[in-house]
């Protein structure tokens, strides 16, 4: 804000903020429901009250112009929300002064600079300008002495590796964006090893007397404090503002009435204002003022974060504070999104697996490595270690677990490996991490030749289905461990999809009538019903019979849609509407595969597309990404740098996240090493030469 007017900030200066100013940030993100818009106003520590007021006013006006779709945030220097910090990957820099005092935002190649930046943070980095003196230093943080043509990074003795690398990323970003790439970076990791750089520091800061201060611990709100949520109803009575507490956790969505405004206090860590659709214009306008008044009344620090939310355009952070949150067109709360009711009938095309070797393009199209006749071994992750699974139960996967599946097949007389990492929907973060780490170890045991495939529960690729020969059963929760903590439900419902051994899987769905669709198995303590919907074919019915023997040892009863006995509906908690219309064909648009070179030599992750690609485009020192829509391949060259190799999976996830078409983040990611390419990869290339390398 300059002279109370909004003035655009040049893109090069994004992430640098003058402490004497206020800023407005508009952030738009594509989501599956359209787009998510966030509006932030940022308050510098030395900004005037007038500017702060003007910033709040502009945000309200912008919100009106955008018809109430944005989530609005009030951010205070040094206490920014995670959402805000996530926009500035390399960190935020606070500069002394302000626009009013004649400071300019970007003066590229300006070398007559002398400043000391105190860099803090591991995940979210911020750098504050501090006094040019040894007194500003401490043992636990990174400090950048910026002298224009030279940047010296001084690492405190008790800094973590992550903090050092974040500090370096920031130094590089200053060099590249503010100095046009023309500055030297020097690093002092241990003062004794860098006498020359220390000499420069002493020239600028003088000799150092006495000990350095100890590391200052970060003050962060703990989870317990954040869990303490309270909901207040806010309204005017005889010109007075009344704030009335109506509920503590667990909060439910029905507490929010469309005619009113509410304040949700998250343990003083963050304040949300929710504005009902039908609340008055006056009430909507007063949202920020009320929140600031609330903070003062509660005696919270003035830097407390505020988020203003409109009815129907709630942020994910806000929804997660409620026990369950249902969108208008969703039947269940967050965390479980079943798309029952709109199940696409996918035409199963019979294809001859014996043709795969002769026609690699068929392998690519059908997403099959081979004819699935190889050997399988399965391990479950238990106490973060690999535990072999009993071969009798191969094919049964539980949503509370993670599994490693090693598939071995012969090609030209020698073994090839595919390693699947299956991640359950309810597995802990630790287990998912352990699964990935154990996969690396297992790959090493097989000479680093395995193709690694990340499989998210419910998104199993065709070949994964095929190797279990029609016996793949996915249980929603629970575990296959010997000592189960919770008893298995008495009534379970499974949806069976598929027409033959190659394409069949059974998935557990909520045991209620609304889940019915095509081919269903209902197991109770007495009997197992095989329910066949009107659109179900004979082949599908046969596969369902095979699965029925796995999920239940009880008597099997086949029932047709429309001829259900009363006990059937009783087990499902009563009759209810379900998707009985003719299942519509799935629209699979013909997707042109795309190849990209992934590089981060410049310190930023950059993807360069190779149009009309062929095998020649895969260079030994590259990490390449091949996107075939239904899966993402990462091809790793023998001479690629370790950092790019280690970052490959993260890059693929980033690619899916930032894809303009709003891609499914659970798309399988397949890691392929040079020289060990499977057929379903080489089939996308014209005339692949297996002996090229």
TrEMBL record:
Its main location: cytoplasm. InterPro entries: ADF-H/Gelsolin-like_dom_sf, Gelsolin-like_dom, Gelsolin-like_dom_sf, Villin/Gelsolin. GO terms for biological process: actin filament severing; actin polymerization or depolymerization; barbed-end actin filament capping. SUPFAM superfamilies: Actin depolymerizing proteins, C-terminal, gelsolin-like domain of Sec23/24. GO terms for molecular function: actin filament binding; phosphatidylinositol-4,5-bisphosphate binding. Keywords: Actin capping, Actin-binding, Calcium, Cytoplasm, Cytoskeleton, Repeat. Coiled coil: none annotated. Gene3D superfamilies: Severin. It is found in: Cytoplasm, Cytoskeleton. It comes from the Eukaryota. Pfam families: Gelsolin. Residues 4-84, 125-197, 247-319, 386-465, 605-681 form the Gelsolin-like domain. The keyword Lipoprotein does not apply. Belongs to the villin/gelsolin family. PANTHER family: VILLIN, VILLIN-LIKE PROTEIN. This is Villin-1. It comes from Opisthocomus hoazin (Hoatzin). The lineage of its organism: Eukaryota, Metazoa, Chordata, Craniata, Vertebrata.
